Amino acid sequence: TNGACDHEGQCVLLAVWAQGCAEDDKQATYDTYFADLGAVGGDSAKIGQDLATLLTTPGLEQAELETKLGGLVQQQQLDVERAQAIDAPGPLTPAHEQAVEALGLRVGGLQGMLEVFKATKDSDDATAAGQQLAARAQRFTASDVVWKDLFQEAADDVAATEGVDGAAPASVFVENADLYSARSMSAIWQRVHGASTGGSPTG
Q: Is residue 139 scored above 50 in pLDDT?
């Protein structure tokens, strides 16, 4: 009888130990995932800051804008690819797909702005150009909503359900929404257009 009790006791201890190891492994998996995606999200947020700096640079000319904006498109596309390569824990897969979607919206917004700047460089309609640029920039705002609501908050809910500590990383692309209004984008377009044509930039 004592042998049976000892055996049962050992089995209980082994079960507890195995459960503890499984929980530790789960925590480590989530920690690694949040850290890896956080690095991507942080880089994407930095691209948002770089874009704002670029657009508000005094004396910025069309050629320089196209080159630097094209570079930001490429950097953001790399972030999409980095995010796609991250192996999310099973329960986080739906939320992770939304994070990738948010990053894709940022690529689309950057590419769209670049295309508008190129298409309107010979135009003299600042109002129309500003409206087109603002329309493309709406993807940036949408990306922040998708990341926060559909990834970050959803991932936090999953982590809580799974009994995992830690929080999903944030990634904010737009720090000043007013910068991307039609009025602001029109003024930016006028400055770039004026600098590029040798005229007097306004706005």
A: yes
Q: Which has the closest alpha carbon to 37: 97, 90, 91? A: 97
Task: Let me know: does 166 contact 30? Beta carbons within 8 Å.
Answer: yes
C-alpha dihedral, 76 to 81 to 85 to 91, nearest 10°: 60
Phi, psi at 86, each rounded to 5°: -80, 135
- Region class of 59: left (phi > 0), else alpha (psi between -120 and 50), else beta: left
Q: Please give the DSSP secondary-structure letter assigned to residue 181.
A: S
SS3 of 168, please? coil
Query: If you average pLDDT over residues 111-134, what whole number do you get?
Result: 97
Kindly give the interhelix angle for 93-119 and 2-55, rounded to the nearest 10 degrees: 10
Non-local CB neighbours of 45 within 8 Å, separated by 6+ positions: 170, 171, 172, 173
Give, for 170, the enclosing helix (H) or strand (E): none
Q: For 178-192, how does the pLDDT look when each residue is reduced to its tens digit (9 = 90+)?
A: 999 999 999 999 999
Which pTM value belongs to this model? 0.86
